[in-house]
Amino acid sequence: MNPLIRFVEGWWWLALIFGGGLAGSIREAFRRHHDRRLAIIEAKAKARAKPVTAAPPEPQPVCGCTHHLSFHNPKTSVCAFDGCRCQQYVGPEPLGHVIAMPLVDPETMGVEPQN
User: Fold this and answer.
1) Domain tally for the chain?
2) 3-state SS track over 9-62
3) Which domain does 70 fall in, by range?
4) Per-residue pLDDT tens for 13-53?
5) Is the separation of the CB atoms in 61 and 93 below 8 Å?
């Protein structure tokens, strides 16, 4: 008779102990695999979600010499930055004050007031 079979016949209860340990490690491996798959699915969902973007920054009056309008003298238009050869600011002018007219209700326009 095969010596392995003779050993198992006499020590069959060891199969229960090692079998239970083996089943536990298999169960643990499946749980880790499941956790990894859930993490991957969550990461993919976050990557597909549209990121919330902030409002674009307001345009800044920047000269061709790459300096801000605040570096240019308003009277002479000369750049005050040391070593800059720019002689004039040519760029978008900052918006001045805006005067808004009072709002008018379009439904009452042209209708005579009733006394």
Assistant:
1) 2
2) HHCCHHHHHHHHHHHHHHHHHHHHHHHHHHHHHHHHHHHHCCCCCCCCCCCCCE
3) 57-93
4) 666 667 666 677 778 889 999 999 999 999 998 888 777 77
5) yes
